[in-house]
Design brief:
50% helix; globular; Butyryl-CoA Dehydrogenase, subunit A, domain 2; 386 residues; Butyryl-CoA Dehydrogenase, subunit A, domain 3; two-stranded antiparallel sheet; seven-stranded mixed sheet; alpha+beta; 10 helices; Butyryl-Coa Dehydrogenase, subunit A, domain 1; single chain
């Protein structure tokens, strides 16, 4: 981060390895993502041609140890997510769903045979995964899911549907959460299984450079060995969501930093009123100060929460706080940056409107702001307001 964006010199507290991971990701975004992402967003297409390089750089399941994964610290992993979203939310979402949701579910709740079969191939980008939890009628209340698993002579039969699933039609395997005898369990459903259909959701105005899908299960029979044996109850998918929310919190800083930097550079160059740079005016400087201050607070909050994760001292409450704070910060920064560019703020010549549209999804998925306020409110008061 430049000095203008790293106001508290948090870089001084990073290890050489953490900085190296960040710089590798930043270089990848600069050289491979930025030249194509605006057109991909316009076309409503995820740039699948980037998957082999994303995998080769070790970005998939990057904080998992073993099974061909990079085994990064939580700090290095967070910085990686920050840089990917500085390019585009769709690229970060692909990596964090593949690693933080699908691979984490297998790593945490799968059998050794399932880990051996899937994790190395997923880290290499040879197999893609998705995470089927949200349903058409149950987003913020995943415990109300209607997808059911029933025992059969050879395994299990799934019936139900999942909605808003990133990587859905790309996925070779879907991690599907369903109620079995009233208890939520995880299942591996492979592409091509009879009764399993994945179809893309179109006409999106956000996350356009990302695959978003609906998964449908109609008398879908899967073998007994495709049950994630250690999954047990809603806590299992929520454990994975905690990891994904951590990715989102870091990613939001990346999006905000991009918007802030573009706006700062623009007002330094753009001349208006007596041929003076816009940046020379009081109201413009006030906006820059507010943007930098909010980014800085998010960085400090997230840095400490991440060190707690690396020390094994963090809880889901820390993740809720940084997800809530950072996504709201990022969308406010993006809106301010968009306004500072005037008409150019909506132009594809600049990335701000793309980030702003994406952040409308980021602030919604993996728990809306209201849900995270309720989570934290319960912790503060001891009273459940859900």
């Amino acid at each position: 981060m430049s000095q203008n964006v790293d106001f508290l010199r948090l870089d001084d507290l990073l290890s050489d390895e953490e900085k190296a991971v960040r710089e590798t990701a930043r270089g990848f975004v600069r050289e491979r993502v930025l030249p194509i992402i605006e057109q991909a967003f316009r076309d409503g297409r995820f740039p699948t041609e980037l998957i082999p390089e994303i995998a080769h750089l070790g970005f998939l399941g990057a904080d998992i140890h073993g099974y061909g994964c990079a085994g990064l610290s939580q700090m290095a992993y967070g910085l990686l997510m920050q840089e990917l979203e500085a390019g585009d939310t769709g690229v970060r979402s692909f990596a964090s769903v593949q690693g933080g949701l699908a691979m984490t579910a297998i790593h945490e709740f799968g059998s050794e045979a399932q880990k051996e079969r899937w994790l190395k191939a997923m880290a290499a980008g040879e197999k893609i995964g998705c995470f089927g939890l949200t349903e058409p009628d149950f987003g913020s209340n995943p415990g109300g899911m209607r997808t059911r698993a029933t025992k059969s002579s050879s395994g299990f039969v799934l019936d139900g549907a999942k909605m808003w699933i990133t990587n859905g039609t790309l996925a070779d395997v879907a991690i599907v959460w369903a109620k079995l005898d009233g208890r939520i369990r995880g299942f591996l459903v492979e592409k091509g299984t009879p009764g399993y259909t994945a179809r893309d959701i179109h006409h999106k105005h956000s996350l356009r450079a990302s695959v978003t899908s609906e998964l449908i299960f109609e008398s879908c029979e899967i073998p007994a060995e495709n049950l994630l044996p250690k999954s047990d109850g809603l806590k299992s998918p929520l454990t994975c969501l905690d990891h994904a929310r951590f990715s989102i919190a870091w990613g939001a800083i990346g999006a905000a930093t991009t918007c802030y930097t573009v706006a700062r550079d623009y007002v330094l160059e753009r001349k208006q009123f007596h041929d003076q740079p816009l940046a020379s005016h009081q109201l413009v400087q006030a906006k820059l100060v507010e943007m930098q201050m909010e980014i800085t607070k998010a960085q400090a909050l997230t840095y400490q929460a991440t060190r707690l994760r690396d020390q094994g001292k963090a809880s889901h409450l820390h993740t809720s706080m940084i997800k809530l704070n950072n996504t709201e910060m990022a969308i406010d920064v993006a809106r301010t940056a968009r306004a500072m560019l005037g008409g150019y703020g909506i132009s594809g010549e600049f990335p701000i409107m793309r980030h702003l549209c994406n952040l409308e999804t980021v602030i919604t998925y993996e728990g809306t702001s209201d849900i995270h306020r309720l989570i934290l409110g319960k912790a503060i008061t001891g009273l459940d307001a859900f």
